[in-house]
Amino acid sequence: MKKYLSSLLFLAVLVVFSCKPDDSADPIIVSPPVEVVETIIPVGDERYLHEDSDYIFDQDTLRTFELNLPAAALAKLDADPAAEVYVEGSLTFEGETISPVGIRYKGSIGAFVGCLSGQDWGNPSGHKTCTKLSMKVKLNWDDPDSKFYGLKKLQFHSMNLDPSQMRDRLGYWLFREMGVPAPRAVHAQLMINGKYSGLYSLVEVIDGRFTKQNFDDGDGNLYKEVWPLNMYGMPRFEQEYLSHLETNEEASPTANMIRSFAQEISNANSSNIQGIISNWMKIPEIMAYCAVDRTIRVDDGPFHWYCDGGDCSNHNYFWYEEPTAGTMHLIPWDMDNAFENIISNVNPVTPIGDPWGEITNNCQPFKYGLFQLEQRSAACDKLTVGWVSFANEYEQALSQFKAGPFSEAQVNARLDAWEAQVRQATVQADQAHNDAITVYAWENALYTLKNNLEYARSQ
After folding, report:
1. Among 129, 203, 208, 364, who pairs with 247 as Cys (CB 3.0-4.6 Å)?
2. CA angle 68-71-74, nearest 5°?
């Protein structure tokens, strides 16, 4: 399922038009001596061993992280970022260094669009041509139990496709304010081998540590991008669920819980589907999820069923099964394309053709958007149409959202504070790199974002 990624190509073009010419288009060729990454053994009084992750995700502070890699290791990463291969390096944060750590570039096809030398954007290849690429740091590189402020991984999103530099942080904040389990996100500055790389979005990794922090029983199975029912409304084979498992991989896991959930939904009818969903899910939570998602138009998320050759599927979400409570939880992921289609379908690929709960073309794939790519109505999915049937609960969640965290007062207060927090970092990146977002383009994108939010509140 790759057609949806052309949307990211389109966004990359938009960003390029708002940025200055790229100053890093040539490959990096080095012949450095062999360098060894020093292993640093903590003595026990390091702050990062004792503080928790709330310090890292403090909304009121812009923090700086320093990555250091041997020249040969950095050259290896830059030569083929899409390989997503870890190399050894170190992380320094507020005077303390943890070493070794694993460091690599990260992202799907969209994260590399316009930033690699290869000509086929649908098959990323070639050397790095942009200053910034999203990065992942594996903190427990040589010790599975090693943690940094309670975290095992850090992921820095480049925001190359988001000229406002706010979508990640605002989107996840809105979900969390409505009681939906979602990752935390803040801005962060990144230094690489002593050079200022720029401003990134630091997004919390959704893993077993995340589930333990967000649920009463965090030891259950976490799945990435596998919907309980296939496009024909049937449960999947167990191995299909397990192939998307993000936790408990070494514990001979089963997918009994998510398969039972899927089986009951598959067998449900209009008279009992609400009761079945209520037994498996917290209705206020999932209604809040739907209200936020549809209001801010996360059109590249679970309610967009992309079709390719008759096969239709969705993406950008996690499922968590909480074993003690016997409940299923949908977790949002990837805010890159949120907010942009609120007033009009700016993105030619991602827009969802149907209003909430409506069906087009009798559940057959239909073409929609400027590129006329095929999609299928989300309400053809039996689980989604079950959620749609909670009409009163949905309206209550929508009203609560618009009167609360999505209100002009609350949202603008957040955006204004974050804008002030990252302004100097944006100016510094603009001055340091020819391919950084210009301050003018950034300010214009923030203005557009606020207009989109105001329009969404009025609908």
Report:
1. 208
2. 70
